[in-house]
Amino acid sequence: MRILISGAGIAGTCLAYWLHRHGFEPTIVERAPRLRTGGYVIDFWGAGFEVADRMGLVPRVLESGYKIEELRQVDRRGRRVGGFPVDVFARMTNGRYTSLPRGALASCLYETLDDGVETMFGDQVVGIDDAGSALTVRFQRSPARAFDLVIGADGLHSQTRRLVFGEEAQFERFLGLKVAAFEAGGYRPRDELVYVVHREVGQQVGRFSMRGDRTLFLFAFADDDPALPADLDGQKTLLRDKYAHCGWECPRILDALERADGLYMDRVSQIQMQRWAAGRVALVGDAAFCVSFLAGQGSALALVAAYVLAGELKRAGGDHEVAFTRYQERLRAFIAGKQRAAVKFTSFFAPRSRLGLFLGNQITRLMAIPFVSELAIGRDLRDALELPDYENGDADRR
Fold first, then answer.
1. Could you give the CA distance from residue 131 to residue 74 in angstroms, rounded to a whole number?
2. How far apart are CA 140 and CA 125, in angstroms?
3. Nearest to 191 by CA among 98, 87, 88, 72
4. Domains, the chain, ranges and CATH?
5. CA–CA separation, 17 vs 336, rounded Å?
6. pLDDT digits over 158-194, tens only?
7. Separation of alpha carbons 213 and 294, rounded Å
8. What does each C-alpha distance from 286 to 12, 34, 251, 265, 355 come to in angstroms?
9. Among 102, 90, 62, residue whose Cα is nearest residue 216
10. For 27-53, what is each residue's pLDDT tens digit?
């Protein structure tokens, strides 16, 4: 079966790997001219970690990642007011936890693909026509081609979803926050293996020292307007306005922002859909069920969904109707739980009041106590999902 995957991100490359391994013929089309390497540092654990392990990627992922030692919260003068040792996460996940740049994970996944997976960079799908027994896919630059299935792995703002299911507004739940990230070289001070965060009412900014004398800066702030600035200058202006009176190192960080030639910015939203497939087209990862930046697990869940979708297609012998149904049945409740859990963290990223800010700081201090951390995040860190072994025939186990 010829299967087109729209998007060469985490979900798309993982899906291509497993489809090819199961005997299908995947092709990836990616709008960007090359593999995207940007984005912020992500935490990686849970069922997604298990998928990476089954791909033989864990040593490479750990090598690319960081063993962050501390989350440190500071006040306007840089004094420590909260935080905890991050080994609490490793303890709860039996050591199967790391933090790494999203682009590094994408590169690890892309390197698993061999010549059996065709990739088309610098192009995108602009039309999908269903002829019943196959799909005719029209591209922006390349000639139209026939495929048996199309899988949209093209993220929160999925073009595939728009073409087949309708406009994004039907499915997007805006959570009232925006997020931005950029990197800068030579920034001082550096706190190795420490994520330093300064929170104020309605916003936070953090920094993390990376290899190569690079520093990553991450912003999250409340904003009732879901619209995003159209260009880099507008995005920088929005951040300057939001953080102009912020304490700590914000003036220095905004100076570094002025010199940055790249910036990631997006609204914090979830995608909530009743069905993830229609006819011969299905969605995977953020395109189907974005849990939002707040969950801290979007990339891991993208791997899980890609693994399950490919496995169900194998199990069903290519019968897409059966496979798509089983794919959603297996993951629906699990993903819904992750979405509910993510919303609970909104007030941590953008405290609603000075009291909320104070209480949040105190809670993070208590996180160093095992039973407190277990109560606060233990359930969310443990993925109650058994991944089938599609290659060894136990996929019927539930």
1. 59
2. 6
3. 72
4. 2-66+96-171+270-346 (3.50.50.60)
5. 26
6. 999 999 999 999 999 999 999 999 999 999 999 999 9
7. 27
8. 11, 20, 34, 16, 34
9. 102
10. 999 999 999 876 788 999 889 999 999
